[in-house]
Design brief:
2 domains, 10 helices, 60% helix, elongated
């Protein structure tokens, strides 16, 4: 590898990492300010808040990598152009194509980083952060309605009033129907905990509905076999966008098996697959900046432009995700459109600049 290639790699990667560090520090500060509102709830003290903020950092890394790549590339290339280093490199034989390849290699590196953090670290750290917050503040994991959480499992409708941080269920109501949609049994349990392949219901009141007569039984403990497992309940701890693709796929299968809508989770799944590729799109956007005459704009202006483009990309991602859910667009289209639009903008800008 030529020395000037190594020099470009080093300069660009350092700038990208510095921008990412600044963005993560900013987001962590905002998290700290937001969590201070919960200070004193239960045992949620300052130590817990700091741990929560630290555990939230991998999620911010996943969010800021594409923006960091865009801003870092634009700043480093503008800095090189300002000191005429880029001009010397181009005179020495560095073509636009070769410069583009260097940027693509850097984009691939950060694509791998984004995918690794999003799949291996963020789901675990987010789950730990939420559990820490819930346990310390004595809050509930899920209470989507006034009556609690409702889940469908085959011919059973399950109502759980409280889901604790360790996935223990409190006040469980199981309504079981036959194939003709007639209610045949209700089981009310004070609590339930998972044991290997089944739930153990405690303090159960079982009501059976038969044609001849109804019956009510009191049972100290009962086994409940269900497709609902703690792994699925862990979905409630982490937003779909922060889950791993594996967990998203498993939860989508569960919803499909119970004839429930999966659009939101499918959009999140496709976004997980496409979002890391945004790093490649960002370097294509940054490339035209490298070959613009330095008098066109200064380093600060280009850095500001990079930040604005990065924020616009994040906003478009959220807007198209919500528009897709509202209008029942194909999940792949909702997740792919923002990246395609930015890729198209980058290619058009590159073509216009090279023609100059």
């Amino acid at each position: 590898m030529p020395i000037f290639h190594k020099y470009l790699y080093k300069e660009i990667i350092i700038h990208v990492l510095l921008v990412m560090l600044a963005l993560m520090a900013m987001f962590s500060f905002f998290d700290l300010i937001q969590e201070l509102d919960s200070l004193g709830k239960g045992h949620y003290g300052l130590t817990n808040i700091i741990l929560f903020v630290l555990l939230s950092i991998p999620g911010h890394v996943y969010d800021v990598v594409p923006v960091g790549v865009l801003v870092g590339c634009m700043m480093s290339l503008s800095q090189l152009a300002r000191h005429s280093e880029l001009l010397v490199l181009r005179v020495s034989g560095l073509s636009v194509f070769k410069l583009g390849l260097i940027l693509v290699h850097i984009g691939l590196l950060f694509t791998l980083l984004t995918f690794s953090v999003g799949e291996l670290i963020t789901p675990i750290s987010e789950k730990m952060a939420q559990r820490l917050r819930i346990q310390a503040s004595h809050a509930l994991v899920a209470q989507e309605f006034r009556s609690g959480l409702w889940v469908k499992d085959d011919r059973q409708f399950i109502n759980v009033e409280e889901v604790m941080a360790d996935t223990t269920l409190v006040n469980v109501h199981i309504y079981e129907f036959d194939q003709q949609a007639r209610l045949i049994r209700i089981r009310d349990a004070k609590s339930a905990d998972y044991q290997h392949d089944h739930w153990r219901l405690k303090d159960v009141t079982e009501t059976q509905f038969k044609l001849e007569q109804n019956s009510v039984m009191q049972i100290a403990e009962a086994k409940w076999y269900s497709m609902i497992q703690p792994a699925l309940l862990n979905v409630l701890l982490v937003m779909p966008e922060k889950m791993s693709a594996w967990n998203l796929s498993a939860y989508i299968d569960h919803l499909n098996n119970n004839n429930q809508k999966t659009n939101r989770y499918q959009v999140a799944l496709w976004a997980k697959m496409i979002y890391p590729l945004a790093c490649l799109v960002m370097v294509i956007l940054a490339l035209p900046i490298a070959i613009l005459p330095q008098r066109t704009s200064g380093v600060s202006a280009k850095a500001l432009l990079g930040i604005m483009l990065g924020v616009a990309y994040q906003i478009l991602n959220r807007v198209f995700a919500h528009l897709g859910l509202l209008n029942d667009w194909p999940p792949l289209l909702s997740a792919l459109l923002p990246t395609l639009l930015f890729l198209l903008a980058g290619l058009i800008t590159l073509q216009l600049v090279t023609r100059r």
